[in-house]
Amino acid sequence: MNEPQRGFWPVLGGLRFLLAMWVLFDHTYNFGPAERAIPVLTKSGLMAVMCFFVISGFSIHHSIATRPEGYLRRRVLRILPLNMLAVLIGWLAWSMFGAAGGYLAPAKPPTALQFIGCMLLLEAFLPIMISFLYPAWSLSIEAVYYLLAPLFRKLEGRPHIPALMIASGLFFVAWPLFRNEYVAGRNSYWLTGIVMLWAWLAGWVAYRQPRDRRYLLWLGLAGVASVATQARFFDVHNFGSAAVNCVAWIGTLVVVFHRVGDLGGRTAAVLDYLGELSFPLYILHYPVLFAVTGSLFRIYPNLNWGISQVAISLAAAMLAYHVVDKPLRLSRGTRLADQFGRLRLWANGFAFSRRVMRTGVPGSSKVSRIELTR
After folding, report:
1. How many C-beta neighbours within 10 Å does residue 195 have?
2. What is the pLDDT of residue 49?
3. What is this structure's pTM?
4. Distance (Å, rounded) from C-alpha 250 to C-alpha 262?
5. If you write DSSP's letter for every residue of 202-254 in order, what string do you get?
6. What percent of the chain clears pLDDT 90, i.e. is strictly above it?
7. Interatomic CA distance for residues 287 and 280, integer angstroms
8. Cβ neighbours of 196 (radius 10 Å)
9. What are the pLDDT digits (tens) for 137-158?
């Protein structure tokens, strides 16, 4: 009953891409001189992440409600390969260039256990965050929300979810009263995951109860109150920076609760594609820019402009989507078990070929299928 029209998903895809670009623009101040960065109204991407959570909660509710079979497998294929790629890029950059670029280099050399933990998205539980993999903090929290989604599904219609939203939202609004630090500034994010759960559940509720004005009103007020109490964390320093945060939050809520937009044709195709790029863009741009500032921009510092960082990040996102993400996740009719089966077949065939080259085929020149697939 609650399934949105097909033309609404391109709207969400375009919105996800805009939020990813917001984060990228803000981060151009972290990898080069401020005067060369992309001009922005606010240098904090915290509100963009909150809006990401709203869209994620909506999309995950749709996924588990309409296709419960294989839900966790789809989530693993969605986030783990690209996250592993991000960690691999960061590890290679650190191994080859180290602190040469001077941007986002860790004060202490990362350990092998830190890299392994980041690959497994354990930042939400352990103090293992590496500076050049920083955007993964929100992904590690989101992965926990994915695991909790089946539980939230069972709690639908009960007062537990509204109670969780109220408790989490109040804690988030009152955060400065408990900690005088950035809500996403620690090395372990279990507490951050608790206080930001309400934003993710806002999208979850929007899927089940579209056009619910009560939720829309209270969630909107909670977001505005958060911007007011945590003005410095949202980088609110004038009317423009306050407005962009509030408009982004309220606008995202309106879009998901009222399912604004029903697109088709070429426009929908373009927005769908941009939406697919949003995740690789978000998770890869930090390690990619860390690698580039330690190599190319170190040799040619005059190339280090915000627009260059954006172009390189977009190119990396497109390449990762077409080479890694899409083949693994979007190939129709191919199950994960089939993919592992093919890998096993190739590995066994390679091993058997080496054995044949060394010793010859015993007793016959014919190779049986049983031997190849054992």
Report:
1. 21
2. 97
3. 0.87
4. 20
5. HHHHHHHSTT-HHHHHHHHHHHHHHHHHTTTTTT--SHHHHHHHHHHHHHHHH
6. 79
7. 11
8. 26
9. 999 999 999 999 999 999 998 9
